[in-house]
């Protein structure tokens, strides 16, 4: 440990598989170039799938149990983090994810505290019920204003923090997520396994990547693809897994689509329409040769999957959801006051109507079908959009992002 450097503690509730955990790893690796970085988690119940090589501490406080146990665990975490901060002589503590934010703020001593907001809070449909009310109407408004600085991964999260949670504008900054641009492009050159290569050679390929979960909103994408498929031969490839796996597979079959499941003992052939290939060690080899990348999310932060698809040089088609896609694909445009109802052919990709409003869903899906049909018929436009997307992804390199992080941290430490 370099005694001349400031001591930076990074906190996240858990390790395991996820976009936040990947971002946590990137921050740990990059910020260790300038500070003494220690990582902390509530407990080690999940494997560390993104090891950084930096020191890792566990508060050794598990989750679970009934309401009384959860409250007890919460305050134990606050006590243990406070002790850890003192033991490490922490100068600044950065928390990733909301649960870690609360513990970071309530354990605050002389050290500076920065919160990293990875996604929209206002539009997050997982924040619901009594617990959601407690988080949105009590905890966030009461605690977030205690932070020395709050960093949002998208510019469009800043108004939420001001208007919905009462954070002073001067405490807020936007620093986008970064991607391993060079590494993603290099890994994207790996050839597909022969059986999958045969699938890709059999017709146009639409690919999407992400957890099979409510946020990613893949169900209406299947309806769109089923309608498109009636007049346009194509394949739809899902990369990822999650709690909605069974529901999505059943819905695809109910639409008359032939479904391949990687977890079933079925030979991989070009005879299927929809391919659920599960988690992939190298998803980029599936994305780069695709005809287009489709992204139907209901809400985001600054989506890694979309940025990595752009890095692969494939044309991207995304909902104009809160937050991130517009900032990535049409950075010079303002966020519209109302959801868009038509396709927007932006500079770096296609922004599309969201697929969450029951009153307009049929019309919005029709726009998607027509737009995808147009895109699949225009090889020149696809090439132009793919090249533009790859060029835009260079704005999201680690070097660009963490230069801004270092400047911000040094400013906070000097206050």
TrEMBL record:
Glycosyl transferase family domain sequence ranges: 199-332
Residue ranges of domain Glycosyltransferase subfamily 4-like N-terminal in the record: 69-180
Record carries keyword Transferase: yes
GO molecular function: glycosyltransferase activity
Keywords: Transferase
InterPro entries documented for this protein: Glyco_trans_1, Glyco_trans_4-like_N
Domain of life according to the entry: Bacteria
Any single Pfam family the record assigns to this protein: Glycos_transf_1
SUPFAM superfamilies, alphabetized: UDP-Glycosyltransferase/glycogen phosphorylase
Record-given protein name: Glycosyltransferase involved in cell wall biosynthesis
Organism of this sequence: Hymenobacter luteus
């Amino acid at each position: 440990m370099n005694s001349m450097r400031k001591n930076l503690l990074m906190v996240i509730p858990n390790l395991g598989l996820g976009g936040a955990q990947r971002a946590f790893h990137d921050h740990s690796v990059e910020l260790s170039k300038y500070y003494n970085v220690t990582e902390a988690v509530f407990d080690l119940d999940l494997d560390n799938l993104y090891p950084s090589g930096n020191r890792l501490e566990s508060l050794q406080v598990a989750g679970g149990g009934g309401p009384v146990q959860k409250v007890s665990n919460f305050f134990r975490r606050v006590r243990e983090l406070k002790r850890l901060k003192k033991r490490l002589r922490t100068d600044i503590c950065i928390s990733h994810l909301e649960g870690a934010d609360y513990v970071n703020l309530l354990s605050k001593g002389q050290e500076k505290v920065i919160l990293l907001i990875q996604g929209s809070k206002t539009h997050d449909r997982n924040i619901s019920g009594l617990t959601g009310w407690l988080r949105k109407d009590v905890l966030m408004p009461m605690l977030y204003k205690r932070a020395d600085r709050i960093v949002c991964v998208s510019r469009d999260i800043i108004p939420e923090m001001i208007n919905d949670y009462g954070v002073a504008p001067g405490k807020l900054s936007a620093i986008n997520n970064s991607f391993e641009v060079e590494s993603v492009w290099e890994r994207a050159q790996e050839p597909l396994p022969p059986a999958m290569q045969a699938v890709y050679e059999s017709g146009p390929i639409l690919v999407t990547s992400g957890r099979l979960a409510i946020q990613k909103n893949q169900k209406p994408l299947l309806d769109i693809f089923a309608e498109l498929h009636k007049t346009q031969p194509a394949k739809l490839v899902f990369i990822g897994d999650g709690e909605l796996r069974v529901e999505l597979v059943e819905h695809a079959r109910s639409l008359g689509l032939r479904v391949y499941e990687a977890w079933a003992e079925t030979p991989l052939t070009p005879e299927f329409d929809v391919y659920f290939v599960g988690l992939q060690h190298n998803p980029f080899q599936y994305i780069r040769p695709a005809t287009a990348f489709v992204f139907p999310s209901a809400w985001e932060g600054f989506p890694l999957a979309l940025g990595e698809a752009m890095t692969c040089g494939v044309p991207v088609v995304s909902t104009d959801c809160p937050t991130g896609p517009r900032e990535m694909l049409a950075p010079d445009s303002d966020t519209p006051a109302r959801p868009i109802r038509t396709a927007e052919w932006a500079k770096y990709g296609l922004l599309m109507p969201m697929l969450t409003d029951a009153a307009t869903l049929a019309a919005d899906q029709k726009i998607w079908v027509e737009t995808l049909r147009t895109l699949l018929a225009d090889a020149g436009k696809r090439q132009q959009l793919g090249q533009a997307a790859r060029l835009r992804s260079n704005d999201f390199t680690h070097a660009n992002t963490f230069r801004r992080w270092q400047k911000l941290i040094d400013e906070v430490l000097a206050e």
